[in-house]
Amino acid sequence: MTTQQELRLKTSESEKITINLGPIDLGQIDLLVQEGFYANRTDLIRTAIRNQLAQHADVVKQTVARKSLVLGMQHYTRQDLEQLQAAGERLRIHVLGLASIANDVSVELALATIESIFVLGALHASAVLKTALAGRIH
């Protein structure tokens, strides 16, 4: 499987979050589900979140530009980092969405080339890399 195919598969995945709701809110959600407005609780919650994100889309765009964030997916391969190392450059990862570091990136290479990581969303990297880079993840 190519890296591009792996990324497509990973983007279809979702991150799990947990929320706490009061019994009245939860009851109202269940009522809307029961009445057929939504397929299930998750459907209602996803729709509500998407509506809020759409409502604040301009603020998101402005903030992404102001903070120089990559919007979407950014994947870093061993080859990418080796090229940076050869050029004597260091990487500042700033992503709103998904940042991923290939599984074949060694701790030594990551430490030599990644200066900082700031991700709003999800960071996919091996547990070993995340531990090694913990002081650089903000």
From TrEMBL:
<dbReference type="GO" id="GO:0006355">
    <property type="term" value="P:regulation of DNA-templated transcription"/>
</dbReference>
<dbReference type="InterPro" id="IPR041088">
    <property type="entry name" value="RHH_8"/>
</dbReference>
<dbReference type="InterPro" id="IPR013321">
    <property type="entry name" value="Arc_rbn_hlx_hlx"/>
</dbReference>
<dbReference type="Pfam" id="PF17723">
    <property type="entry name" value="RHH_8"/>
</dbReference>
<protein>
    <submittedName>
        <fullName>CopG family transcriptional regulator</fullName>
    </submittedName>
</protein>
<dbReference type="InterPro" id="IPR010985">
    <property type="entry name" value="Ribbon_hlx_hlx"/>
</dbReference>
